[in-house]
Design brief:
Length: 382
DNA sequence: CACCCGTGGAG
DNA sequence: TCTCCAAGGGT
């Protein structure tokens, strides 16, 4: 109760000071911002691409994709016209592949309505564009005073306020009001970029540089002496480890790859057939069972290869690859797409990172030659 | 609201 | 080696 009152008071005080803060913030930004490629454009399409790529993805990762993607898909028309297979290949390695599919849908919606909507509320109606992404495009491309509340900006407000609980509900509304006051008080595009830049380079989650922060010294988090405490991290539970057997199933000089179901986890990507171990099952037993159940396929001469570990957000897998052979006339029985490919063709299909780690072990030369490969190291282990 | 959706880099 | 998590959005 008393905490609630205290928060209201400090929130009102901060809200009133926002215009002053933005003055010093913009001075700092003009002096010390990084030179990022998407800061040179007002093209809503290019800004959209960068903003979607940057969702939950680090700048350094996006840098490796952004310009190549724009060369491949230079405008809404080219993106709308492509097929999902090619699009996923361009997105391969970025993760959260639903982002690419929603961009595809949005591109077609934009063409259908005859061009880009200019206002944030309209942008937000497009697939994959939420309030923050809409605010970014509307302010950067069209100069609208549309607020952003991304992880960076949320952290800045939380620290200035000394917010010691996860922001949700009414607190979140208050933080959006602060972002709204910020874009009302000065050039919206500059304010939004400056806030995100401050969060990314100074008011960082860990090891913030409070000594060089342009914002006032009454920041509650800085005064506490332990700014990293703010905002509090939500508790994380341990990720379960799943054991998975995979087959590199040769038929002549080609091996089998299967396409994952279109929706859901890694939807639409290609992979090596196989599956999770069941209770009491050995690795080769699990592979034979999965191949029978999923593909009605029998294989012989299983040769194990070293296991490869790969982590996802909520679980972890250990992939146990087996080279083996299918009969000359073997065909998998499955409603999903499959192909028998040469190892030279690995680079033509979109695979999840875990599968690339396996390829890197099986076909070191080939895999390293594939454009995205050098990344997949040899971490593994039983 | 709680959960789902990937990945690679930092410390 | 291990934990954390980044310019979120959809359901």
């Amino acid at each position: 109760m008393s905490r609630g009152r205290t928060e209201e008071v400090s929130f009102a005080a901060l809200l009133a000071r926002v215009p002053d803060l933005m003055g010093t913030l913009l001075d700092w930004y003009r002096r010390s911002h990084r030179d990022l490629p998407w800061r040179h454009t007002h093209d809503p399409y290019a800004l959209w691409v960068s903003e979607v790529m940057l969702q939950q993805t680090q700048v350094s990762t996006v840098l490796a994709y952004y310009e190549r993607f724009l060369r491949r898909y230079p405008d809404v028309e080219s993106l709308a016209a492509t097929d999902e297979e090619a699009l996923l290949k361009a997105w391969e390695g970025l993760g959260y592949y639903g982002r690419a599919k929603r961009m595809h849908l949005a591109a077609r919606a934009i063409l259908q309505r005859g061009g880009w909507p200019r206002r944030a509320v309209e942008l937000q109606a497009l697939p994959g564009i939420g309030r923050s992404t809409a605010g970014a495009i509307a302010s950067f491309a069209f100069g609208e005073a549309a607020p952003i509340l991304d992880g960076n900006i949320r952290r800045i407000w939380a620290r200035l306020l000394g917010l010691d609980r996860p922001a949700s509900g009414q607190v979140l509304v208050s933080l959006w009001r602060l972002s709204g006051a910020a874009v009302q008080s000065a050039d919206p595009a500059l304010v939004n970029q400056a806030l995100m830049e401050l969060g990314a380079t100074v008011c960082r989650p860990r090891n913030p540089f409070c000594g060089v922060c342009p914002l006032p010294s009454w920041c509650e988090a800085a005064l506490s002496g332990d700014p990293e405490r703010f905002p509090p991290r939500s508790p994380r539970h341990a990720r379960p480890l799943l054991e998975v057997s995979l087959g590199i199933i040769w038929r002549g000089g080609r091996f089998l790859v299967t396409k994952r179901a279109p929706n859901g986890f890694l939807g639409g990507l290609w992979e090596l057939p196989g599956g999770k171990w069941q209770e009491g099952e050995t690795a080769p037993e699990a592979l034979r069972r999965e191949l029978r159940e999923e593909l009605a396929l029998e294989v012989i001469h299983l040769r194990p290869h070293p296991a490869v570990r790969h982590g996802y957000s909520h679980f972890e897998v250990r992939l146990h690859p087996f080279e083996c052979e299918a009969a000359d006339d073997a065909e998998p029985h499955t409603p999903l797409a499959h192909r028998w490919i040469l190892s030279e063709e690995i680079g033509t299909l979109a695979f999840p990172a875990g599968t690339h780690k396996v390829f890197a072990r099986m076909f070191p030369i080939r895999s390293r030659a594939a454009e995205s490969a050098g990344r997949y190291g040899t971490r593994d282990g039983p």
